[in-house]
Amino acid sequence: MTHHPLPKDHPGASVLADQDGGSLRLMVRGRLDAPGTAHVWDEAAAAAHVAAGNLQGRDLPADCSAIEYMDGSGVALLLKLREVVAAQGATLALTGLSPQHSQLIDLTWHCPDQLDSLIPERRGLAHRVGMAASETLVATREMVSFVGEASVIIAGVIRHPSRVRWKDVLLSCVQVGVDSLFIITLIGFLMGLIMSFQSAISLQRFGGEIFVPNMLGLVMFREMGPLVTAILLAARSGSAFAAEIGTMKINEELDALTTMGLSPMRFLVVPKLLSALAMVPLMTIFFNLASLVGGALVMLSLGYPLVTFTSRVFKYVHYSDFFGGMAKALVFAVLVAGVGCLRGMQTRSGASAVGLSTTSAVVSGIIFIAFADGLFAVAFYYLKI
Amino acid sequence: MTAVHPIISVRNLTCGYDDTIVVENVSFDIMPGEVFIILGGSGCGKSTLLKNMIGLYEPMAGQVLIDGRDLVTASGRERDEIIRRFGVMYQMGALFGSMSLLQNVMLPLEEFTDLPREAMTMIARSKLAMVNLEKALYKMPAALSGGMRKRAAIARAMALDPTILFLDEPGAGLDPISSAELDELVLSLSRALGITFVIVTHELESIYKTADRVIMLDKDVRTIVAQGDPRVLRDTSENIYVKRFFHRMPSQDAGTPRVDCAAE
C-alpha cells in the first residue's frame, strides 16, 4: 500500500463508513481531484469492503453531498467503491450528488465492473506455432509468386524494352549508384587499407609482405568486393525500396495503380531491379579499385614502389576472378532489389509496418546474400574457377 | 456580479507556413464553457489557426492567451501547466498504434499524475465509458472504425480532465450516424463537465447542432469574414462568402470582402 501525501494547500478528502440512525453508509467528502483521490484510494476501498461485508446483498448508501469538487479521478474512486461493494454482493447507491456531479456520473456509470470478458484470450503454444507456420507458408507463397511475376515481367521487358519506364530506371540508378558512391568507395578504401596493413604486419615476420598485393587482389575481386558492396547496398538501397513501396502501400497508392490497370510490379519493381542490375556491378568495381588504392598506400608506406604493387595485383588476378566477382554482383543485385521490393509489397497496416518492412528487407537481404555467396563458393570450387 | 473572462484570447494573430501567410491579423475571444467553431472552406487556414492556438506552430505575429497566459513565451513549468489545461483530438485520431485503447488513455495519467495504478486504470475506463467505448478497452486502434478511433482520441484528450478540448475536423470521414453521435458526445461533455470546445470543421449539420458561436475564415481574404451564431449568419448574412458557405453555392466571383457580425 503506497501512501500519497496531500499537497499543503489541498483541503483534503475522505471516505469513511458511518452509522446513520442504525444503518450503515459511506460518507464521501472533500475535494476529489487527482491528489485527493490518490490520498484516500486505499482507505476508501478498505472502508467500502468492510461496510459492504456486513450488508449481505442490501444497498450501501454513499452520501456524496459533502463532495466539494470532483473530476475524473473522483468518478474513478466512486466506480472503484461500486466495484468493491459489488464484489461483496451488495449495491452502492449514491445519494446527495450535486446536479453537475450527477451528470458526470451519468456519463460513466454504465462502465462494466467485470473486465474478464473483455480481456483478449491468450493464445496457447500450439495455436501460436500454428499461426507462425501459417504465416511462414503465406510469406513463402508470396515470395514464389513475386519471383514468378518478376521473371515474367522481366522476360516481357527483354522482348519489349519500350515498356520499361526508363526515366524511373535512371532515377533509381542515381539513388542506388551515384548517391551510394561515397560510402562504397570510402569503405572499400578503408577495407583495402586495413586488410593490407594487418596482413603486412603478420607477413613481415617471415619477410612475406611482398605477397600482400596478391592476397588483396584475389580477396577483393573474387569475394569481398561483391559481398561487402551488396551488404552496403542492402542496408542503403534495399531498405529505401522497402520503405518507399511500403509507404505507397499504406497510402493505397498500389491499389490505385492496380485499379488504373497498371501493374505495381512493372511500375515500381522492374525499374528498381534494372537499376540494381546496372549499378551493383559498377559499384563493386568502384569498391575493388578503392580497396586497391588503400592497399597501394600501405605498400608505399612499407617502401615498395607502386609498380611492384600494380604488377603483382594484375599478374595474380585473372579474368575469371574478375568475371566471377561480377557474376556474384549481378545475383546479389537481384537479391538486394528483389528482397527490398518484396518486403515493401508485404507491408501490413499500422504505424510500425514500414519500419518492420525496412528492417526485414535489410536482415533478409543480408541473409540471402550470405547464402548465395556460400553457393557461389561451392560452385566455383567444382567449376575450378 | 463578477465579470467572466475569456478562457482563450487570440490577439492580432498572423500565421502560416514559411513565408506564406495563411491567416492574417485575426482577433477573437472564447468564453468558458462555449462550443466555439472555426469554420470555412478547404485551405482557408482553419487547422493552421488551431495549431497556432495549441502551440504547435509559433505565430508570425500576435499572440494566443490561454487563461491569460501565452503558450509561446511560457517556459518550463508554466508551459506544462498551460498544456495540461487543454486536450487535443487530431484529424485522424493520432492514437498510438502499438498500444491498446486503455494504454492510450492511461499514458498521460502515468506521465503526469501520482495516482495508484488501479486508480489510473479506473480513470481510463471511465473516460472510455464516457465515449461509449467501455467494452473496447483492450482493442488496438487498427481494429477500430474511424468513428471509434475519434471517440477514443477524445477519451485520451480528456484523460487529465482538461478545461478546453480542441477537436480538429471531428466529423471528417465519418458516416452520418457516427458524426451525429460525435456531436451528441460534444454536447453532453459540454453540459456535464463544462468543457470549452474549440472545433475546426466545415460540416454544416454539426455546426448547427453544436455551435454556440462560430468564426468563419476564407482563403481569398485570409481573415475572419463573419462571426456569431451560425443559424443567424445562415439566415441573415448578406456576405457573399457566408452565403456561399452556408447555402453551399458553387464558386463565383466574390464581392468586396467585409466582416459580418451576427447578433449573439
Structure, explained:
The complex is a heterodimer of chains A (385) and B (264). Chain A is α/β, with parallel strands linked by helices and 385 residues long. Helices cover 70% and strands 9% of the residues of chain A. Chain A has twelve helices and four strands; from the N terminus they run ββαβαβαααααααααα. Chain A has a four-stranded mixed beta sheet with strand order 1-2-3-4. In chain A, a hairpin with a 2-residue loop joins strand 1 (13-20) and strand 2. In chain A, helix 6 packs antiparallel against helix 7 (212-250) and helix 7 crosses helix 10. The longest helix of chain A is centred in the middle third of the chain and has 39 residues, at 212-250. Chain B is of the alpha/beta class. Chain B has two domains: 1-85 and 162-171 and 178-264, P-loop containing nucleotide triphosphate hydrolases (Rossmann fold, 3-Layer(aba) Sandwich); 94-161, no CATH class. Chain B contains nine helices and eleven strands. In chain B, the strands form two sheets. In chain B, strands 6-7-8-3-9-10-11 form a seven-stranded mixed beta sheet, sandwiched between helices. In chain B, a hairpin with a 4-residue loop joins strand 9 (213-218) and strand 10. The relative contact order of chain B is 0.16. The mean pLDDT of chain B is 87. Chain A binds chain B through residues 2, 4, 33-35, 37-38, 41-42, 71-73, 75-77, 79-80, 100, 103-104, 106-112, 115, 118-120, 349-352, and chain B through 96-98, 113-116, 118-119, 122-123, 125-130, 134-135, 137-138, 142, 158-159, 161, 188-189, 191-194.
Quick synopsis:
The complex is a heterodimer of chains A (385) and B (264). By secondary structure, chain A is α/β, with parallel strands linked by helices. Chain A contains twelve helices and four strands, in the order E-E-H-E-H-E-H-H-H-H-H-H-H-H-H-H.
